[in-house]
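re: that chain from earlier
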Amino acid sequence: MPLGLEAPLPGAGETDLLPGGVRQDRGSYARISPELVQWIDFFGRLGLTIDQSIALARRADAEKVPLLRALAVSGLVPEMRIYRELAAVLGLPFEDEIDPEQLMLRGRDMETLLCRRGDKPLIARMDVKGDAAVYLLAPATLDLPRTVARLRRDPSLVSRIRIVAPGVLRRAIAKRAEGRSRRRAEENLFRKFPDCSARFVVNSWQGTLMGVILIGLPVSIMSFPHVTELAIHLFFSAFFFLCVALRLCAAAAFEPQPLAGIRAYVPDQFPTYSILVALYREAEIIPDLLTALGRIVWPRSKLEIKLVCEADDAETLGAIEAHGLKPFAEIISVPAGTLRTKPRALTYALAMTSGELVALYDAEDRPHPLQLIEAWQRFAIADSSLACVQAPLVVSNYQRGNIARMFTFEYAALFRALLPWLARRGLVLPLGGTSNHFRRTALEAVGGWDPHNVTEDADLGLRLSRFGYRTEMISRPTYEDAPETIATWLPQRTRWFKGWAQTWLVHMRKPSELWRDLGPASFLVCQILFAGMILSAIGHPVFLATIVYEMAQIGDGGGLDGRQSFLFAFDCCNIFLGYTAFLLLGWQALGAKEREGFWKTILLTPFYWFLMSVAAFRAVWKLYSAPHQWEKTPHFKRER
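^ sequence. v structure.
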């Protein structure tokens, strides 16, 4: 199914007659659409049948967009041919290629043009050597007869206006604005809200505290080993028990989430929706991605899909160009800079979108076709404080190995149980990395994504909450594939842990302000989700090592003193409650088919938690050695 699926237009082989068998006259066209009268001859020049022209006119009228826009997004005629023929009809020169350096545009003008909706004209001045400046025009609509008459009355306009295809002009403007856009993508959040940026890992007091711990802990271990051992256990146990308590609360209040109803709608109600897909080294799955996006239900005249690629990723760019795109889809090429992260690419691309609503997907995603409609209808009945809705992520390859099984189990607990529980109570909600739907005004108000944070999703969810916005869950899912090997899983989980640590350090620079912004309940949830998860993963092997050591001591015939007995019982309780809460929450969230072979999940839990501990220790090292490095998760073409 190709990208751009929608209700088909009549084909060239169909009859050009009215239902009654009478050929259309201009009066009949006017009754269908007044705009069609002035364009019918032009459509015939392009080779469209009368039935195709009528269907286009009806669609344009239903969606309340210009007829020329409906033609452009239909894919019936290539954009270049439409505008070349339009130039010929108007008697104006046509430019099929533009030198970006010849454009006479200020920075703010370039930004305005790049985020202009597709049903609005693009106009730019171009400096032509030896001649006066000319205007490049990519019209979205025209009163064709009046324009032709005007040009005939004033031939001097012919030398000052040139027609260009919108896509060609947009690419030239984007190239001209490249440096400005790159700087904006990397610096906007830091300039706007420096305290919310992960550009610097720690501030002065955090760095001092870490230094004291790094020096004081070894000294304490050597001087007061038993007291220090007990303090370490209590410290990690506090966060461990908080994570257990959060899972148990969500499990106790678990409610299955049925698909929400879709209310009746008419096409002219739809706003412009922008979809961003960040791609890097994803050539193999481009066909699957475009097929999945092609199933989305939304008027194509009000949809813009931006495939955001790194400029030096020739393989992915080549795969997209070889496959071909519909007119409402566009490649955004992100130039090299001081960073190479997904949030930097998304921030770069956001300035080139026009949607009132913005959705984010990953390369391997397969969103439910009606997901955009559900998100839009949720925004429509909510007040402006609703900034984002998160769609649940469902793993579809859960049977492909132990890692995929455990990843599926985690995702079920998170997206079907924990996040809905947080959302129902109005608590801070860390976003998933994909299938977020934003109200654009809110996204821009909080500074957008942090290009320096490697879990930009969780950070953005927290920042939205701090600024007084809400995030809710919707019901229609996005399907994706889990990592199937440790080699794929470990770098991804390392990046997640590192990003959660980044997020916690950033927002805890001024703890009193975070408390004030979030309130006590969300402040506590923030500590659990961002600090608690990584500290629990680090504490897990400490508990296990203590249990194993003391069991070995018992096995050798040695007894345990009071302190050792306490730690042994305490750590056994930690492990038992941790595993139980993890398994209980996930079990409730699984579907009947996913529960098959649950005994394997139980047996794999200690091993999987040990892997998470490895990832947590690796994340701490990476936070020190490469805080802004983005460890890419490879994706592969799905087996049919």
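The two ends are 15 Å apart (CA to CA).
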